Amino acid sequence: MTYGPLRDDQLATVSDILAAAFATPLEQIGPWLARAGHEHVRVLADKGNPVAALLLLPMAHHFLGKRVPTVGIAGVGVALESRGHGAGRRLMDKTILEIAEQGAALSTLYPATQTLYRRSGYERAGKLLEVRVPTFALDTGHPRDRSIEVRPLGDGDALAVEALYAALAREQHGYLDRNGYMWSRVRQPQGKPARGFGFFAGDALEGYVYLRAQDGDSPPHHDVRLTDLVAATPRANRSILRFFHDQRSLTEHVIFRTGPEAPVLSLLAEPRYDQEVVLDWMVRVTRVEAALTQRGYPRSADVTLELDVHDPLVEANAGRWTLRLKDGEAEVGRGGRGTIALDVRVLAPLYTGYLSATALRRLGWLDASDAALRDLEEVFRSPMPGMGKM
Question: 61, 259 in Cβ contact below 8 A?
Fold first, then answer.
């Protein structure tokens, strides 16, 4: 089998594979691939005939304030007649080798199945939650802040919106440094425009939302789904809640996705909302040296870790590594005694902070002494990682 970028003569077959895989109308696949960029489509072919395909989406995570490049994986589809023969595994393994060769530290995805991706070295490493709030519960008890003006967002506000999101994302452990494709999912979810509203103090943008109305159980009453919500100041947070509270005559619920930390909910008078995990996302460490070097660490950490990483796929990752930390700065090199033994798959939840070293040892996924365990806990101590988007 061969692996490589999408060719023009493969587009029709790949579109059909993805339409069948995701039970999506064929006419929606073409615009989706165009938004992502055909150059980001990878195809596994048997004698020239596509049997599986996926999308590569270069972006980055923020971990303790540091930007770590990742390649998101989306749209992994295998032809119905080719399932059960290892095509998905071959496609993922080839993709990981390509990502590693390009130098990106990580790869991230939302799994339809854990089994396939675990075999290629991915593990659960972060959370995506969905919050559903009745509009009547959005009254914070504060009077309307007259210093904030709400107005529709236009094309001229795009740079200010993206800058405000970037500032928030740097503070949120696990959040994405978005690429153009991810912004298109905010502003045009499923190819349909969302309404954007900015919360301004004079000319300064202090918060924004993008939203789409969705059908309710008793028209004309309906719910509103947010594709993004960002507030940089206390008055912007309060004004956003007031804005949606004012829609309560027809809007029944406001629904939005978030990481584990959603500070705006703390402003509610009562916690009258539903919150559930949508899906845990998975990470694969594709370049051990880059990943360990680029992550943020507690400034108090002054320690040396000696890792022995098992990676049967990416040869450059396998073996012994030292991670020396002082004042939060990392120095990574080859060598050491390998006193902390773990698979590259297990490195992912440790690295992001999704699972503690103690929990990983209890699972039998990590081999380390009590002293080494204490060092690991200090080095990888962090909030639960999250994202606000799929």
Answer: no
Sheet of 340-343: strands edge to edge? Answer: 329-334, 319-326, 302-310, 340-343, 366-367
Helices of type H across the chain: 11-21, 26-36, 87-102, 114-119, 158-171, 180-187, 234-245, 288-294, 344-352, 357-362, 370-379
Query: What residues have CB less than 8 Å from 357, skipping those under 6 apart?
Result: 350, 366, 368, 373, 376, 377, 380
DSSP state of 91: H
> Per residue in 57-78, is it b (16+ CB within 10 Å) or e — as a string?
bebbbbbbebbbbbbbbbbbbb
- Strand 222-231 vs strand 204-215: parallel, antiparallel, or unpaired? antiparallel
- What are the tokens at 126? 């972060």
> What pLDDT, on a 0 to 100 scale, did the predictor assign at position 218?
75
C-alpha dihedral sign at 269, 272, 273, 274: positive
Measured from the Cβ of residue 294, the count of other Cβ atoms closer than 10 Å reads 19
Q: Which residue has the tokens 């051990």?
A: 288
Q: What pTM value is reported for the model?
A: 0.95
The predicted structure's pLDDT at residue 295: 97
Q: Which two tokens stand for residue 16?
A: 């059909």
Chain center to CA of 216 = 28
Q: Are 128 and 277 in contact (CB under 8 A)?
A: yes
State pLDDT tens for residues 378-389: 999 999 999 998
Q: What is the DSSP letter of 386?
A: B
| Adjacent-strand bridge partners of 53 | 43, 77
Whether residue 237 is predicted with pLDDT greater than 80 in this model: the reply is yes
Residue 246 has pLDDT above 80, yes or no: yes
Distance CA(281)–CA(238), nearest Å, equals 30
Distance CA 54, CA 44 (A): 9
216 pLDDT higher than 80:
no
Give the β-pairing of 340-343 and 302-310: parallel
